[in-house]
Structures are given as C-alpha cells and as structure tokens.
Amino acid sequence: MNRRDLLAQGVALTPMAAALLAACGDEPSWPEGMAPIKWDRDTCARCSMAISDRRFAAQVRGGPRQSTFKFDDIGCAVTWCSEKIKQHPWMSDEATRFWVADASGKGEKWLDARRAHYVNGPRSPMGYDFAAHAAPQAGSVDFQTMSRKVLETWPAHCEPPRPEAAASAP
Predict the structure, then answer these.
(1) 160 band by pLDDT with thresholds 50, 70 and 90
(2) Higher model confidence: residue 15 or residue 79?
(3) In a domain, 156, yes or no
(4) Three-state DSSP class for 72?
(5) Residue 110, domain member (yes or no)
(6) Between 72 and 160, whose confidence is greater?
C-alpha cells in the first residue's frame, strides 16, 4: 500500500472513529436549559473554587437574561442565593431553574434541586456536607430543611463573620 492510499483510508475512517470516540465519552447529557460545566475549569460563583467533584455541583439559571451561576457545593449555591436575592430577585421565581448533581453518580445525572432529597454526611468540597439523591434515603431531608441547616452554619465556609459576631468576640 502506498502513502496516498494509506492517507485516503485514514481520512475515510476519521468520521467513524470520531463517532465511536464520542459515544465512549463520559460527558453527561445536560438537562434542557442547563449550561455545561467545564470540570476543573469553571469556578464556583460564591467561593471561586474550581468545580471538580462531580457529586456535589449545582447550577442556578434564570431571570430575564437567563443568567447562569455554577457552584462546587450545594451549600455554596444556597448561601449565595440568600446573599444575592436583592440583586437577583428572579431567584425566588418558580421559573428559575436550580439543578444539583445526583451524588450517586459522577456528574452525569442532574436533579431539580428543590425536589431532591439531601443526606448529611459525605464530605463535600466546601464542607457543607449535603449530598443530593433522587429518592428519599435514610435520614434525608428536603430542600427547605437542607437550606435552613446550611444557612445556620453561616459564617462558616469562607464567609466573613457577621458584624454582631465580630463585636462579641474577645
């Protein structure tokens, strides 16, 4: 076989090889409306840490411009939303999309964060330690309960101290 024939066969196989390689990839199929997360490159909107652990990532998207905010930990997402509600009042709108990774996977399955069931215990990137699941688990809590518990940990997890806490410090 001469060089020209070899190159011609290589070019002919390239589309088929590309299709096979794409089918073997482990990239998730993103839910409709969700912006893809570039693992290890995108950073958390709250703490600026790289989004790496695929079991705990979250995303909020909504508003008139379909603004997208990505998070490395559901705790960062909940805290950020409570901090930014005045700046982004659309976050309380039911049309706002809020996704969280299913902790039983590797970032390939996404849940509606408001309907997920949260188990406290597995170590999460920022230490809020809530993992989302599609079905109830032993000891799991709903979104509102998880959110309340996350907000009770404030000012922990890279948040500056509250003014009243700083004033009472010795």
Answers:
(1) very low
(2) 79
(3) yes
(4) coil
(5) yes
(6) 72
Whether the Cβ atoms of residue 47 and residue 81 lie closer than 8 Å to each other: no
Q: Are 74 and 146 in contact (CB under 8 A)?
A: yes
Assess if residue 107 is contained within a domain.
yes
Length of the chain (residues): 170
Taking the C-alpha atoms of residue 130 and residue 127, their distance in angstroms, rounded to an integer, is 8
pLDDT of residue 141: 98
- The three-state secondary structure class of 118 is strand
Closest CA to 72 of 141, 31, 123, 135: 123
Tell me how many domains the chain contains: 1
Percent of the chain with pLDDT over 70: 74
Amino acid at 107: G
Domain-embedded: residue 104: yes
Question: Model pTM?
Answer: 0.74
Residue type, position 30, single letter: W
The pair of structure tokens assigned to 37 is 């997360």
Alpha-carbon span 82 to 93, nearest angstrom: 13
pLDDT at residue 24, rounded to an integer: 47
The tokens of 22 are what? 């794409």
Helix (H) or strand (E) holding 18: helix 3-24
3-state secondary structure of 133: strand
Tokens of 11: 């070019």
